[in-house]
Amino acid sequence: MKLCYFDDFRLGVVRGEAVVDVMAVVADIPHIGPHDLINGLIARWEAYRDRLADAARTGTAIPLAGVRLRPPLPKPGNIVCMAVNYMEDGTRSAPAPLNAFHKAPGAIIGDGDTMVLPDVPATIFEGEAELAVVIGKPATRVSAAEAMGHVFGYVNFIDGSARGLPPAGNVFFQMKSRDSFAPIGPFLVTADEVADPDVLPVRLWVNGAIKQDFNTSDMAHKIPRCVEWASAIHTLQPGDILATGTNHRGLSSFMDGDLVELEVAGMGRLHVRVRDDLKRVWSRETRLDRQRHGHETPTPQISGRYAPGD
Fold it and tell me: How crowded is the C-beta side of 217, counted as CA atoms within 13 Å?
């Protein structure tokens, strides 16, 4: 099943190219906002799944083209992001040690929303294409063998980054947790619709040009191990997001006016605009382009505030 929020955060079930409003089905779930409602539904899924399926089959279908899609998880309690979790098409000799960082829940935006680049001296702004796992029931020190039983579903996820901020070594919070730096959606896809999350194509386009094109089969530490490791540090709750990392070789600059699109197979296509009031400019090289030309440094800024010599 594909779930979404649309218009004034109406909960819907996607049916083809349309959505069916199912708010009446979930009205009895205690909530004070859309974040409580979706998290409450996830925690009570077994009691509501068949009722939602019936409502989606018999309800009035509204064309998706005529609604405004919203983030399907408007305010997750935790956004845990795995770091350096791909083998980079075999160019890494061994997996990096397991590591992760938190992103602020306030960084969430949805389909059709805008990622705003802040006025900070970043060397480059990038966004990483990722498959994100959504937790379905509390997970505390679960084993890898049990981990998939705690997965509710999956969602497209872009991990926005403001690279190279000073001071050196004091980076992850200020680089990753900026407002609008966690686009997700357009749908929350339940786990039963994904036959094998370890073999999913992941593609990201910038202004129609494909930049990232890889497969989750390149993931170094697979989903069960990531859930095991993260849940040994703190309990994961229903509706929490665990982003599984990216293959960095296709990363490229995000700039003012860009249209960024992400599609993990079966998750729908996420569309995000980029706004930079400073109108800074970088080249369009990917990290792989730079490496092929013998450059290990990030794509240089060409013009605008904070550019070399500005």
Answer: 10
Sign of CA dihedral 110, 111, 113, 114: positive
The model carries a pTM of: 0.97
pLDDT tens track for 83-99: 999 999 999 999 999 99
Given a contact cutoff of 8 angstroms between Cβ atoms, the answer to whether 90 and 203 are in contact is no
Task: Please name the residues in contact with 19: beta carbons below 8 A apart, sequence gap of 6 or more.
Answer: 4, 6, 12, 13, 61, 62, 64, 67
Going by their DSSP bridges, the two strands 2-6 and 79-82 should be labelled as: unpaired
d(CA 53, CA 27): 16
CATH class of residue range 79-303 = alpha beta
Rg (CA), the chain: 19
Where do the structural domains in the chain lie, given as residue ranges? 2-70, 79-303
What CA–CA distance (Å, rounded) separates 88 from 246?
A: 9
